[in-house]
Amino acid sequence: MKASPLLLTNISQLLTVRGTAKPRRGPELNDVGIIEDAAVLCAGGKIVAVGPTKDALKDPAVKKLKRKLTEFDCAGRVVLPGFVDSHTHPAFTAPRLVDFEKRISGASYEEIAAAGGGIRSSVDALRKSSPADLTGSVLRAFNQMAAQGTTTVEAKSGYGLSTESEVKSLEAIRSAAARWPGTVVSTLLAAHVVPKEHAGKPDKYVDEIVKKMLPLVKKRNLAQFVDVFIERGAFTLAQAERIFEAAERAGLGVRAHVCQLSPSELWPLLRFQPTSFDHMDHVNGEDIPQLARRDIVATLVPGANYFLGLREYPPARKLIDAGVAVALATDYNPGTSPTASMPFVLSLACTQMKMTPAEAIAAATINGAHALRLATSKGTIEPGKDADLAIFDVQDYREIPYWFGTSSCTTTVIGVEIFDAKELSPHHGGTELTEKKPKREILRVLRASVVKRELTD
Ligand code: NIG
Ligand code: FE
């Protein structure tokens, strides 16, 4: 059955985030294109028209559609483009509570990792997990994200660390994506740490990634990007270059975890035209002007700083003021950032990194879309873009980062379907994973909350 076109009306503030087709930088990040008392018309999964409610009701396109139209009265709420969470690690099976308590008693992330905890301690359980359970974990994470306004997600592997288990992780991401109405971009992060069977022989593991995993992942079309954790205790720049050369040969995009715990040279990576450099806490000051001249996005993930209890946060102000295109993401993962909440990340960006609420929203929408090469279809509310929207029960968009620790997202619109935030939350029994259920049923579209009414002239 073809879904009817959808008209959202009575939006107190519609943040269109319209603007240049390039990644947003400097003052552009502060311009979120607000329309007050607005309406949005969507049809066929796309945004068709955007404007003040009174004009929308007189619009010939709206009049022509008349009875076919489903109207959703936003009752004075705020509407944004769905968040684009451009950095997440959802393919894991269990929280890391031992690491959590060790850090509370004073051990650092690197000390815990060096003692055998950290990323390596998530590997055994992942290797043992069934594909269905792993898919269930990923889907629960996607639904938690959607419940808080996220409609596009980048999802990495990285806790399998063998050809079989990295492929299983990417397949789980693919199965979860097929059951979720939003958009998922997959990334192979086999180079997360060296697994214990290759301890002391990292190059052997890099060989496996280059010669076995990458060709297989390419052949099965399991990932669009390849990521490497470049850090002491993880992979060197030279190892990353080998992996990125293979990624380039396979026609896959490149992104990297860099400068999270210590500074790293960036220029040897530029020849791969990475779409994004992520974390960037310890970026060298002299690299900043270089980055400002390019379309590489610096993806900042302050949830990791919060959860690791760090005093310092990524230097957002320095980067933005120098003209670097900055994105914000959750970094959802069991070790450093177990949060699916983009609104919480926005709050951290404002309070800890001194980004304005407008900058944070542009970074979490259109610049996230650029970080995934999806900016022509995602990240703004403009005619022709995908109808991915998030509705918040606030009157002013600045309340989204202001109220922290609770979610004011009530509704997520993806395509022409409307999802109630409570129904998406796994704690409310939102998802039952059975192979053949269409995603529409799994996510229980709340038709009841749609106000249908005849449009008057
Ligand atoms: O982005 N730094 C590398 N990867 C993750 C942490 C993964 C983990 O500890 O499980 C991050 O912070
Ligand atoms: Fe990460």
Structure notes:
- By secondary structure, the chain is an alpha/beta fold.
- The protein has helices at residues 53-58, 60-65, 97-104, 109-114, 123-128, 131-147, 163-178, 202-219, 237-249, 288-292, 302-307, 316-322, 342-353, 357-364, 366-371, 399-402, 421-424, 439-442, and strands spanning 6-15, 34-43, 46-52, 70-73, 78-81, 83-85, 150-156, 183-191, 225-229, 253-258, 276-279, 297-300, 325-328, 388-392, 409-414, 417-420.
- The protein folds into two domains: 6-81 and 379-454, Urease, subunit C, domain 1; 83-371, Metal-dependent hydrolases (TIM Barrel, Alpha-Beta Barrel), CATH 3.20.20.
- The strands form two sheets. Strands 1, 2, 3, 4, 5, 14, 15 and 16 form an eight-stranded mixed beta sheet that branches. An eight-stranded parallel beta sheet has the order 6-7-8-9-10-11-12-13.
- Bound molecules: N-(iminomethyl)-L-glutamic acid and fe (iii) ion.
- Fe (iii) ion (FE) binds next to loops.
- Its cofactor is Zn(2+); Fe(3+).
